[in-house]
Write a structure and sequence with these properties.
The protein is α+β, with helices and mostly antiparallel strands. It contains 10 helices and 12 strands. Keywords: ATP-binding, Kinase, Membrane, Nucleotide-binding, Transferase, Transmembrane, Transmembrane helix, Two-component regulatory system.
Length: 436
């Protein structure tokens, strides 16, 4: 029995510096997260700027080369016109060789079609070494059809009102340059994506270290007041003037605090998952929570799950998630309102859906997008880690999803938990197959 004296009464208190440090920690987490987010966007903007600059420059270069190739083709047309109209000129061979060398230098595929629409002259058309005359004609016709779609023909006046036409395609170099910006952009996007993955992995690893260290330190700090609380429980039980039921309720809360301490100390380690009845866990926990919030807050459970519906859960951690969401809902309603918890498993889905809806003040879309960020909190003394840890527990440990399903300012918010479902009958069948 503990004597009732000021000297040996169990006591504990939270130092004001701890509150100050918690607020500093929250601001530090928010600033760190926002700085890293800004760095990510800055890298993306730089990559986008470089890609656009490269695309603009290369397109300008392609346009200039295209103009040059068109001039070479027109020069080829002028040469043909001169040769056709002056077949006896002594400079015929020299001029023809000069024109062909110009086309060969730029590797411009070109076909001259005479007034009878017959392809009589062609340059830089690829043929196989053993191609027959018929195969060559077929290849020329195919290239001619393609050229007619690419560029308008260059007319060649051959006298007496007769006109021939030169059709041409872009050189291989120009074709490469035309597609080069897109290849370059794809490579830069790939590099940016890999950099983003590396950045995200590094950020997540750093967050994990912060969370693990913070959780373990919190568990350590809770140890001393818990011991004092247990002493207070024994003190109340020993006093005949105090209702023993009060001590029993306090003991339940102390046991729960010990469980919370265990949760914090286990953060960072791989949790043990067991097949648990989802309805039983949620219902019993909501019943427990109802007694520990304002009497003006009313919980309503809408259980639509099949009997025997289970899931792979770590009970303590899963209850922690539900508690975080429900307590945030209570705060959002300022201690007055209704919370609806709906459990369902659509036939077409292999997941259990748990919706927690309040009729509180709701939040803007911007806040809904940041609600799971480390350090983000709308409460003055909030650490901004509760929902962050809840999301980590559901998604990393249970392979599910946690997100804001809907929220409207002045009307309320709905959080949705999605976890893989399992029917108890399936487990029995699997066990029987294993035993046999």
């Amino acid at each position: 029995m503990i004597a009732e004296t000021p000297e040996n009464k169990p006591r504990f208190r939270l130092h004001p510096v701890a509150l100050l440090n918690s607020d500093r920690l929250r601001r530090s987490l928010v600033e760190t997260y926002e700085k890293k987010g800004n760095l990510k966007y800055a890298i993306g903007v730089i990559l986008l700027f470089l890609s656009i600059a490269s695309l603009v420059y290369t397109n300008d270069l392609v346009d200039k080369l295209e103009e040059r190739e068109e001039r070479e083709v027109r020069l080829f047309g002028e040469g043909l016109r001169y040769i056709i109209n002056s077949p006896d000129d002594e400079n015929f061979n020299v001029l023809m060789g000069f024109i062909q060398d110009a086309l060969n230098f730029y590797q411009i595929p070109a076909i001259y079609v005479d007034e009878n629409n017959f392809p009589s002259v062609f340059k830089n058309i690829p043929f196989s070494k053993n191609a027959s005359l018929r195969e060559k004609e077929r290849i020329v016709e195919a290239h001619l059809a393609k050229m007619k779609k690419e560029h308008p023909p260059v007319p060649v006046q051959i006298g007496e009102g007769k006109v021939g036409y030169i059709y041409y395609s872009n050189s291989f170099l120009l074709t490469q340059l035309r597609y080069y910006p897109f290849i370059q952009l794809s490579v830069m996007l790939l590099i940016g994506y890999l950099a983003y993955l590396a950045f995200s992995a590094a950020r997540k690893a750093e967050q994990n270290r912060v969370w693990v260290g913070l959780a373990k330190e919190t568990a350590h700090q809770l140890g001393t007041p818990l011991s004092s609380l247990m002493a207070w429980v024994e003190y109340f039980r020993s006093d005949p003037n105090i209702d023993s039921s009060i001590a029993d309720e306090i003991e339940k809360d102390v046991v729960r605090l010990e469980m919370i301490t265990t949760r914090f100390s286990n953060i960072g380690s791989v949790p043990t998952l067991k097949q648990e009845p989802v309805s039983v866990i949620v219902t019993s926990f909501i019943t427990y929570l109802q007694k520990r919030v304002s009497s003006k807050v009313h919980f309503h459970i809408h259980d639509q799950l099949a009997e025997g519906q289970t899931a792979l859960l770590n009970k303590n951690l899963f209850e922690w998630v539900v508690e975080n969401i429900c307590k945030n809902a209570v705060d959002a309603m300022a201690g007055i309102g209704e919370i609806h918890v709906t459990l369902q498993a659509p036939p077409s889905s292999k997941e259990i859906l748990i919706d927690i809806t309040d009729n509180g003040k709701g939040m803007t879309k911007a806040n809904a997008n940041k609600i799971f960020n480390p350090g983000f909190s709308t409460k003055k003394r909030g650490w901004g880690l509760g929902l962050t840890l809840a999301k980590r527990i559901i998604e990393d440990y249970h392979g599910g999803k946690l997100f804001v399903k809907s929220s409207e300012v002045g009307k309320g918010t709905t959080f949705r938990i999605m976890i893989p479902a399992k029917i108890m009958e399936e487990i029995v069948v699997v066990n029987q197959d294993t035993d046999s």
